[in-house]
Structure formats: C-alpha cells, structure tokens
C-alpha cells in the first residue's frame, strides 16, 4: 500500500514573523524555515502505518528549490521517495491541489495524508480541495487513524467532541495536533536520506497553471496590545468586571 504525504516549507514556528517594510508580505530573508508542523505529524503517521500494511511513502513538496531540505527531513524521518515541484513563486492552495491531483494520477497512492493547515497562510484548504478534485472521501482534523486493506477509520476533532468516520480507499486525511508526536531524525538516518531518490519537476510538467487568482493588497502587523492590569484577588477582579458591566 502506498501513502503520499505533501509537506510544505514554512517559516519556523519559533520565529516571530516580521512584515516587509513595503507591506507586500512577510519578510522571509535570512529567517529559519522548517517543515510545517502539521506535516511532520502527517509524515510520522505514515511511518507508523508501515506496521499496518504501508509499503511505500512518497513525500511531495511544491515550492522553491530550498524545499529540498524539507523533503530530506521527511526522508530522514522514514519516507522512501520524494518529488519536488519547483516554483519560486508562491502557489495558492488551488494550484497546489491541482498539482497534487496530477501527481496522484501518476503515483496512484491508496492514502494521502496532509497537514490540516500550513502555519504560514493558515488556509486549511488544500486537503479539502484535493478531495473535491479527485472525488474521493476526506476526513479532516484526524486525531486517530486505523487502516485496513481497503478502508481507513478516522477519529476527527469537531467542536462538540469527536466524530468517527470510515472512508473507502483511496482517501484523504488531514491531521490535527493530537494525532501523534513526530520523531526526530537520527544522524544515521539523516545520512541515509541523502541517497534516497528525489525527482524534480515543474508545474509545466503536469500542465497545471499556477497563476495566482488572489491578489494580496496589504500585509500589516497585528495591532499592539495595551498593557493589562494585575488584580490582587478574586474580589477585586469581580468588582472590576462589575464596574465594566461584564459581570453582575
Ligand atoms: P493549507 O491548505 O495551505 O493550509 O495547507 C494544508 C496542507 O496542504 C499542508 O499541511 C500540506 O500538507 C499541504 N500543502 C499546502 N501547501 C503545500 C505545498 N506548497 N507543498 C506541499 N504540500 C502543501
């Protein structure tokens, strides 16, 4: 059984984003970039499914040349093969989903595991769009995954608790934070990953037009929060809330 995991190179989650002086976007020059944290969870889950009948894990990234590093990280964690679709320009979720659809048509994976969202743009769209384009079942925000030969049962995090769904393969899962704790790649595995196969493609190879359909007008820093007030005890807190009309 083959699993495909799309992974995105994003600003590291520990880095405080800074907006470019001209307001056209976030400044990514000379800042640490890493694999999107939800995608690490997706790769980890695919590796854990190797005990449950998964024989090959293909990781895919659409992005600048440097996304090679992200794919190498996934290979060092335990993925088998990588495909990089090089685009130095930002590709929107619909473009990414169309490219993934074309790769799926070639690779024919039984299961595709994505992150629930990329932490740079917080779109939370790609998995859903890919499921729509492919016409297959999707289970988003997975917190538990159980695989059989022809189906996958997924527990999903929803507002009121959790929901369990069974999907016929091929299917799409997007993963949430509580699904697992991703492993760190060991040094020997990092060395081994250097010789694992990585194919390089372009959007043109798949005949996909990735011209953006959304124009970003302006990017601004969030408004600074004013300093809070410390209260001595609960009585003072309640008195202040009453004075503000928030409590009775
Ligand atoms: P998004 O819809 O942008 O929030 O991304 C959701 C998920 O889609 C991510 O966690 C990745 O698994 C996948 N994805 C999004 N953009 C890319 C990309 N450029 N390359 C590979 N995978 C991506």
TrEMBL record:
Pfam families assigned: ETF (PF01012)
UniProt key word Transport: yes
InterPro entries (UniProt xref): ETF_a/b_N (IPR014730), ETF_b (IPR012255), ETF_beta_N (IPR033948), Rossmann-like_a/b/a_fold (IPR014729)
Protein name, as recorded: Electron transfer flavoprotein subunit beta
Annotated family: Belongs to the ETF beta-subunit/FixA family.
Provenance organism: Sphingomonas psychrolutea
Segments forming domain Electron transfer flavoprotein alpha/beta-subunit N-terminal: 23-210
Keywords of this entry: Electron transport, Transport
